[in-house]
């Protein structure tokens, strides 16, 4: 059993772990692994978000063009970044 492959039967209310203790143990192990992977992903995303906010709010001379295009504050900077990302995604 791998992370993210917990069968639906483990999540249904009618699942009785006493029917097959090993199956229950496998489900718990898989769920704990998935939980740990999600916690690590959340920590990485929080770090990325903190970096972005620092760049957006503090910035430096490299951000001059962005700030010039979005001179109305963080909301406009967010929108400018989102537009640039969307334009890049549309590139071949």
Describe the protein.
The chain has helices spanning 21-57, 64-69, 74-89. It has 92 residues and is an all-alpha fold. The protein has 2 domains: 1-58, no CATH class; 60-92. The model has no long low-confidence stretch (mean pLDDT 75).
Descriptors for this entry?
2 domains; single chain; elongated; 92 residues; mainly alpha; 0% strand; 3 helices
Question: Which whole number gives the mean pLDDT?
Answer: 75
Task: Provide the domain count.
Answer: 2
| Sheet of most strands | none
Mass-distribution shape: elongated
Q: Quickly count the helices.
A: 3
Number of DSSP strand runs = 0
Evaluate the radius of gyration. Answer: 22 Å
**Helical fraction:** 55-70%
β-sheet strand percentage: under 5%
The ordered string of helix (H) and strand (E) elements is HHH
Low-confidence stretches: none
Structural class: mainly alpha
Distance from N terminus to C terminus (CA atoms, Å) equals 38 Å
């Amino acid at each position: 059993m791998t992370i993210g492959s917990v069968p639906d039967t483990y999540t249904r209310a009618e699942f009785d772990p006493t029917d097959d203790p090993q199956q229950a143990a496998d489900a718990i192990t898989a769920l704990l692994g998935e939980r740990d992977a999600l916690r690590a992903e959340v920590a990485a995303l929080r770090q990325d978000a903190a970096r972005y906010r620092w760049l957006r709010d503090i910035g430096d001379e490299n951000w001059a063009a962005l700030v010039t295009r979005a001179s109305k504050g963080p909301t406009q900077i967010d929108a400018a970044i989102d537009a640039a990302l969307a334009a890049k995604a549309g590139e071949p």
